[in-house]
């Protein structure tokens, strides 16, 4: 079976994204429907940054697939003492069937994947959070019947992992992705160009601007993320710059009447999103959090089960 990694949202095709989401929906209906990791096969889940949802959803999901999760932190391993990610990948590849890692720079996960002989999955880097986007798109499928042709609006820090993943995964899904962020917080132009190229093939589109109310107008999905991501400083400046991009009732009022609000969590209530919206009727954030489990089980199945990947 060809070795595939999932380091960025566009490491899978539009058809493959649909296949993973359909499998996720099936596994959600019957959590023990498929146990491709029975044996058990093992998956290493490595954290160089904090996590609640990703840690728990991979641990539980791998076990539900019949496999054995082995979760380690940088601090408890030699990663924090300077052992290279390439050497770590060579060693882990001798023990496990896949490596899931949350780390800092994307160069770090690319270096790890290049040395690994098993699939590597990005559980969040500075640049992308592709597993989160699979869960977000599953949530959009459930609430809105699919992302194709829908307007997905992201407001806030447009230069972070979530904004970049929205651009790529949203474009792949055929959505119209709008990002509203202040100057200095705009997405990486190379990623915008990649998203535009994808959108041209799927019927989606991409737009980047500074006006949150304009971007929210008529949106089917309104989303945001932390103003200060893990590993970032300058909290005071960032909070001041990003305050106009908070999701509150006034911003939500301009969206489509059937819109939903997403947030990858953890939320900083009162900063990027108000309590009123988080706890309001349009919020799908806890469905979204649950869907991490189902989406990641589908992804691991797709990466590791040759019968599934060969039969879209
Ligand atoms: N959304 C998300 O990745 O949450 P954690 O940081 O808790 O894993
Ligand atoms: N952008 C956030 C996402 C947390 C899940 C961060 O990287 O900290």
Automatic annotation (TrEMBL):
GO terms for molecular function: amino acid binding; ornithine carbamoyltransferase activity. Its EC number is 2.1.3.3. It comes from the Bacteria. Its main location: cytoplasm. Carbamoyl phosphate binds at residues 51-54, 102, 129-132, 264-265, 292. It is an enzyme of class 2 (transferase). It catalyses: carbamoyl phosphate + L-ornithine = L-citrulline + phosphate + H(+). The keyword Mitochondrion does not apply. GO terms for cellular component: cytoplasm. GO terms for biological process: citrulline biosynthetic process; L-arginine biosynthetic process via ornithine. Pathway: Amino-acid biosynthesis; L-arginine biosynthesis; L-arginine from L-ornithine and carbamoyl phosphate: step 1/3. L-ornithine binds at residues 161, 225, 229-230. It is found in: Cytoplasm. Residues 150-303 form the Aspartate/ornithine carbamoyltransferase Asp/Orn-binding domain. Belongs to the aspartate/ornithine carbamoyltransferase superfamily. OTCase family. NCBIfam families: orni_carb_tr (TIGR00658), PRK00779.1 (NF001986). This is Ornithine carbamoyltransferase. It comes from Actinorhabdospora filicis.
